[in-house]
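Running log. JK asked me to keep both predictions on one page so they can be read side by side. First protein, sequence followed by its tokens:
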Amino acid sequence: MGTTSPSPRPLLGRGSYLEALRIGEILRKETIGGALLVISAVIALIWANSPASASYFALRDLKIGYEPWQLELSLGAWAADGLLAIFFFLVGLELKREIVAGDLRQISKAIVPVAAAVGGVIVPALIYAVINWGNPETITGWAIPTATDIAFAVAVLAVIGSHLPTPLRIFLLTLAVVDDLMAITIIAIFYTSEINTTALLLTLIPLALYAFLAQKYRYFFGLKPAAAWFILLPLGFATWALLHASGIHATVAGVALAFTIPVLHGTKHGKHTEGPGLAEIFEHRFRPLSAGFAVPVFAFFSAGVAVGGFQGLVSALTDPVAIGIITALVIGKPIGILAATWLISRFTKATLDPELKWVDLLGVSLLAGIGFTVSLLVGELSFGLGSAANDHAKVAILTASILAAVLASILLGGRNKIYKKLRVAEELDADEDGIPDVYQDKG
């Protein structure tokens, strides 16, 4: 008797049913956040280019806070340094959950989105650097086109009505989370000029206390973890404030704090306790705050740029800064993601599912070219708020995001009928046990 050769390993897996449900829930919430993000950016652009533009910039530059603690900041700086820390806190929570309990805990499943994220960071950075090579004033913006704005990307999916199959949805979200982590790492390493060693060492005290209480929260706070907020929130703020004073960008505190949060169920008096882990609880509580307030407010204060009419727009778009950003996000990002994914398939002999094609991956890669939120942040760090280079970078980021969204909409929208059929097949539950058959067929 002949032996049947094993079927090739899929390049993009759909994961477990619970993972698919969780990803679907996250993307639904991010859709609302993405819509608010776009609305906030449009309002800022209209206001910044209206006869009342002076009031917009006056509001953005209005300083509030306590100066002795080095916290007298403009509203724009509070949005960038403070509110985005909440966003990166969620990024850290999501990444830790993926590593501890999600697909990233298995190298075979993690290698594709991680490699794609790396490719999607390196290639755009190189393209920008080549275009701006020899100009020390603009080369510093090389990291602007490295990140993916998942909220904006998901909002685009909602507009075109895409029934994107689960493997592509998981791939997009995981890639976005990983390259956001790489972006915050780049910010911490390359956008820190001077370090206050005393403040940095003092940061470790509230961070250590926060980590200890977070890990033992069921022991100290019982089965009502919301009570922990009264202690954890002040410790988290102290960590953020001290890291801000140290000279390292304060958003890094969000990721550092998130990595201390336990993902799995805790213990009390040595016994396993039921209920969700603190990471899941915090994610449910903070995601609406991040998607519904923090990120849209940041977009409002960061996206506003006085274009200066048609001539001003032409001047901005012909600047090497803008050319580098647009080329890197719209062309470099897809090239990096596709090249890395293809190399993984080549060396592991993994193949795309028969119902998916490389054009589908190209569409998702174009969505990843929507950099927006983190790109705006890196632009401010690279050139300084209010500088001409930063204004041109904003115009380029907005232009690139729109171009990437339109191109992705054309590709993915054209495949929407096929995606709808695939989603129907994914949701088929012939034995009516509450779990789609495709997840049971794979064991």
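And the second, directly underneath as requested:
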Amino acid sequence: MKDVQSEKDERRLPLKKVGIKNIEWPLKVLDKTKGHQYTVAKISLSVDLRHDIRGTHMSRFVEVLNNLKMLSPAALVEILAEIKDKLRAEKSYLNICFPYFLWKESPVSRLSSPLKIQAVIEAESSMMSTITMGVQVPVHTLCPCSKEISEKGAHNQRAIVEIYVRSKKMIWFEDLAEIAERSASSPIYALLKRPDEKFVTEMAYNNAKFVEDVTRDVALELEKDKRIEWYKVQVTSFESIHNHDAFACVEKGMTEN
């Protein structure tokens, strides 16, 4: 059959990325405590395209995914290399996003239940391979200003802590999630009995934090970890008494204006 994708293109315009986006894929991933767990990921794969080639062979991206047995740093490097080889490209790119479950005990009743976080991996291969991993973790924040000016209570809400890192050695999703929870007013739990609710409510009230506080506290924790070469932190608070969200962001290497 005629290979239309490989036809010569006369427009002489290279493309930075061509590929497939948001294919849903069953995936086995490493788990720090249980060895592994199963999930369903959304995966995007792409390569650069030379100026003289009309198109790429999209089916080859899926063929490469068929060889993925378990997600690991070594598997990511292998996928990127195989994509470049199959598609005769100089650069390859990968983005994976999937739900990841942490089994957490409620603080008083000690009942265990799964908490869903979002795991994110971005990887790129050209002359060298780079892997950025991240988590999006739900937490609880309580407003210090509201607490200060109110006679009773303070407005509080869920927030999302996003942490993205590049590191010298492997870092577990669980490690990043723990930093996010430790830096918030309180962790979030799937299952809470009344004594647990009392504990969490009082913990948050005694640990009031703005999104700015949480963002800085997470960054300081990441700075202590010598494995981490780069990080980005963003915290978004889904405000309970405003019709907008509040957020703060920091990235390693920032300089003051």
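Observation for JK regarding the second prediction: The CA atoms of residues 123 and 131 lie 4 Å apart.
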